[in-house]
Amino acid sequence: MAEDVRAIARAAPFVTHVTRFGRPMSVRMTAAGRFGWVVERGRYGYAERHHSGVGWPPIPDSVMAVWRAVVPDARDPECCLVNWYGPEARMGLHQDRDEADLAQPVVSISLGDDGRFRIGNLERGGRTEAVWLRSGDVVVLEGAARLRFHGVDRIAPGTSTLLDAPGRINLTLRVVT
Ligand SMILES: O=C(O)CCC(=O)C(=O)O
Ligand SMILES: [Fe+2]
Description:
The protein is mainly beta and 177 residues long. Helices cover 11% and strands 40% of the residues. The protein binds 2-oxoglutaric acid (AKG) and fe (ii) ion (FE2). One of its GO terms (molecular function) is dioxygenase activity.
């Protein structure tokens, strides 16, 4: 799967991920599938093309196989975001709610160095729990958990040799329409 992800990175343009509050997150991002996520001049959202005009490569079979194994009743994913976290990168607590059909699950696959995933509640604030995600771990946000706040507050460089450089890749699969 790491080789498939390298192929996506070669084929798809990189965009810098910026939070919805306009704060840079130091996470680099690209995508596969019908939709990618683009950030341009403060506007962000799903798009069938990068603003350079380039579309996104197909979601690899190895990644589709994970989706089908863990959420067999879901529609096929229309977007596979590829987030690259360097050793210092973070992703603040947020909800995934830009999709039209929130009854469809979100599936994420962790590759490379361990990342500490934090999950909170359906509203901002309150108690949160953290879990270290290791290379190969799969998280499913569905049902009552679909809209829980979540983020990544730490990367542990050097905990995996899968990738060529220190860091973590997270693949996030979603149905968009
Ligand atoms: O990197 C992760 O484990 C979470 C990614 C995420 O929450 C997102 O891309 O919306
Ligand atoms: Fe998310």
